[in-house]
């Protein structure tokens, strides 16, 4: 994010980890991996959708998500994925394949 530490250096994952360890600061909630809180990747995998879909759910107010600050990972409560509005949206937007024996293949040589 371009923020600097006292010596003018930028933050790295190692520096953040060291600071948290020294000051006994826990990481974000979804880092616990206890299943209660999820990252956007975890939520997308659980619902079988892309990150874009999860972002749309958050933007549209269908899915509550928290960030400790802008740019930080989203924290999504696993139980919020069970919301009826999300289930309805997923059911409505599920791609449907129609099997038609009479349909001609675009790649007939294959």
Task: Outline the structure in words.
With 110 residues, the chain is mainly alpha-helical. The chain has a two-stranded antiparallel ribbon with strand order 1-2. It starts with 12 loop residues before the first helix and ends in an 18-residue tail after the last helix.
Strand % is: under 5%
Which strand order do you get reading across the main beta sheet? 1-2
**If you average the pLDDT, what whole number results?**
81
Output the structural class: mainly alpha
What's the total count of β strands? 2
Taking all Cα atoms into account, the compactness measure Rg is 21 Å
Q: Kindly, what is the distance between the CA atoms of the first and last residues, rounded to a whole number of angstroms?
A: 50 Å
Which SSEs are present, and which pair or pack?
Blueprint: H1 13-23, E1 37-38, H2 40-47, H3 51-59, E2 76-77, H4 84-92
Antiparallel strand pairs: 1-2
Please tag this protein with its features.
110 residues, mainly alpha, 4 helices, two-stranded antiparallel sheet, elongated
Summarize the structure.
This protein is mainly alpha-helical and 110 residues long.
